[in-house]
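As practice, study what follows.
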Amino acid sequence: MDTMTQIAALTAETIQNLWPEAEGLPTAEDLRSLLAVPPDPALGDYAFPCFRLAKPLRMAPPKIAEAVCAAWAHADVASVQPVNGYMNFFLNRENFAAQTMAALQAAGDRFGSSDIGKGKTVCLDYSSINIAKRFHIGHLSTTMIGHSLKRIYDFLGYTTVGINHLGDWGTQFGKMICAYKKWGVKEEVERDGVDAMTRLYVRFHEEAEKDPSLEDEGRAWFKKIEDGDPEAMEIFTWFKDVTLKDAAKVYDKLGVSFDSYAGESFYNDKMEPVIQELRDKNLLVQSQGAWVVDLEEDNMPPCLILKSDGATIYATRDLAAAVYRQNTYHFDKCLYVVAYQQDLHFRQVFRVLEKMGYPWAKGCVHVSFGMVSFDGAALKTRTGNVVLLEDLLDQAVAKAREIIEEKSPNLENKDEVARQVGIGAVVYTDLSNNRIKDIDFRWERALNFDGESGPYVQYTHARCCSLLRKAESLAGVTPDWSALTDDEAQALLRLLSRFPDVVLDAADKYEPSMITRAVTDIAQAFNKYYYEHRILDGEPAQAAARVALADATRRVIKTGLYLIGIEAPERM
């Protein structure tokens, strides 16, 4: 039992003993969720607001706090103090250190994991790149938020399904086939990949300005794709394979993988049953020649299902995809990691699923995020102001290599460490703030070894590893946990002990930045501890306790970094 759970249980028991006849008193579980960390450490390690008890007890919160504190009989766990309606807890430091270290050592690398998700499935729709287009920095957030959430849910015992919902449908593919048939060279596309396809697409539009009939040819080729024409499908499938081969280079650098690449085209034959179901349930109404689902009572515009020419749109495919995913994976949640601009689209789609009578629609969630700029400049595809993600990652690795050469010229495996640090710097920057906030990527912040950055946290991990290498002589020495009662050790222990709650909160709020913030706080607390105390000096039993704390810190930082998709170098 962790310290917060123990305090909550003992507080609930004390309250129940004081007022055995009272109804509506909070359970131990309720109390645990109400425990807070005071902003000022002088007010205690934890605080319980007694305002929650005012109604069932018909007493003023300050009086309740005084009564509960007076009846508290667990000084071995914490001493208590009533302050303005709050019950403040001051932990018994030695017992807290012993209890926390026992939990950390018992769990090892799995500290913070749980089986809360056992038997439940989470589908995650993220990254969703477009065929025949290059990966740019705008794809970073969807890719890394989704990847991190997948790892978090895996860590909590869920079965996860990572889905890359490819953008592989539309008339642009007919135009690309038309361009390839007229001017393309197979060897050139094989060699240059997406860049070669982009050149063909650009040429198509240049030539179409001179000869508008090309547009008709492009549409004709797309019709062939729709009809399953063998030649059109062969070229179309090849374009997808070439794109994914290019994308794999970026995914490999980021350590990202997927369980499914079922994109828009996959649902081509799965839309008609959904459309027919909408008709059968009298949900489709005609509007200006198109077919829509009326959402006026939900204060939303109608959800367009079929255009006036009978063509389907994104919403049609997303409805078919949701039904397919539920039938295939039986998900408890289906997360769509897509930029906030698509908020209305997903609200409409989820509401249509509800109107179709699917109770599982409540488990569909739009995990939105903000926009990315680079050195203060917004990214605009039409003006060419695009930072390609592969170029950004390569630059980050090169810059990290330069810094390592300057700071640690004798370091072994510089190239490998530079890769870990450079990629980590980019990912950390993306996941360091609340996901809905816009991100301005700047090199001086991302690669700062001294500030709140990926390299700073990674360096702290490497520092812990270095300490452990120097502490081999202490192996087998029984730690004296009384050595961890100073302010710095206690502050670090409190942060470590709260890590499992952070993981749960991150999953609950779909917010990887909570873990990024936690490992940064832990790194800062450890460095403060490191500078204030000579860890390897003094009595062996006390040194062993301090080394054990460093080892626990190393493990939690490594776990936290893993959960946000960052590697943890052992030497820097």
Remarks:
- Residues 121-273+318-367 form a domain with the Rossmann fold fold (CATH 3.40.50.620).
- The longest helix spans residues 230-254.
- Confidence is low (pLDDT under 50) at residues 379-384.
- Residues 36 and 47 are 5 Å apart (CA to CA).
